[in-house]
Design goal:
alpha+beta; 72 residues; globular; 3 helices; two-stranded parallel sheet; 2 strands
Amino acid sequence: MGRYNQLAQVIQAQQLTPQFVKTWTTDGYFRETQQLVQQRTQAGYTVVEMECAALAACAQFRQVASAVIVHR
């Protein structure tokens, strides 16, 4: 949880309130079937996005930590 705490401190320094959620990332809009959405929702995912999959893949390949900040 150390990296999460570091990230939270950076966000709080900007006078924002961090909210850590489970995010489902996908690279294809049409892959989001009703069944998959239902499964992910039941598993506790609250966000779906399509931009971070490539960043996560690069980080995994390079064996480095990564994080994404999404602001609404």
